[in-house]
Write the structure tokens for this entry.
Amino acid sequence: MIINEILSERKRQIEKFGKQNRTLIEWAVILGEEVGEVNRAALEFHFRNEYPNIYTKDKSEYLANFRKELIQVAAVCLEIIEDIDK
């Protein structure tokens, strides 16, 4: 299930960074950085055929990366909500 992937990513983030206690502006910037990675993954997927010398991966690899970045965004959103609710 997708929620299990998000929870696993959340656990990975806690192991890497510890529990976070951030201000709303800090959370917004962190989330923005993660969304930027989603945008980059979408750009790479979109232009993979137009610029094959730059974007050399297979279509499925770009989709997998896009999905991975979305899971990370969802995990950060979950963490932000947890921080607000405590």
Remarks:
- The chain has one domain: 2-85.
- Residues 12 and 18 are 9 Å apart (CA to CA).
